[in-house]
Automatic annotation (TrEMBL):
Primary location group: membrane
UniProt entry tagged with the keyword Glycoprotein: no
The protein's name in its UniProt record: Na+/H+ antiporter subunit E
Key words of the record: Cell membrane, Membrane, Transmembrane, Transmembrane helix
Amino acid sequence: MRVRTWPVVGVVFAALWVFVVGQPLTPISLLRGFLAGLVVGLPVAYVFRRLYGKYVDLGRGARALPYAGFYLGAFTRELLRANLDVAYRVLSPGMPIEPEVILVPLRVESDLAITVIANSITITPGTVTLDYDDETNALYVHGVNGRDPEAIAEPIRTWENYALELFDEDALPSDPPPEIIVSGGERDSTADPQGGGVDDD
């Protein structure tokens, strides 16, 4: 069912308002908070209605909700793991940090999906999105654990699998992801055994 987008956005704003304000968990308080959120959210959504599409497919949105939950769950799990990993590296006497930049080609193509994944990478400790290459549809990602570039890409691929369904992309999660490219190339493959650096011959 297609409906105008701005009222839906207003309702979303109202729901967010309930969480932001921190209403007591009683039905009447939640209802009051939601109604107050509508009073604020609907006018704001109407004023900024040109920033999003005119219509939204509610049926498609309902089908996408489970994948939003899966994405959030996978992101939260990786966020906790990354926090522990970075804390270990910082507190370890040897500081086992070996930075690396990798190029991660994406299967998602919509601006929203790319932005969500790029921001998820940056929010996660130990990784940051440096840039987006429009020609190759790929993200430049900096990671502290350069010894294992595939470990950097693995959670990104998991998020992307859910994002493909969440944002109704053309590609499928079953489609094989493109190979990542490590900025330094294959490790130790071009180094001179005598320590002379890269062989240009």
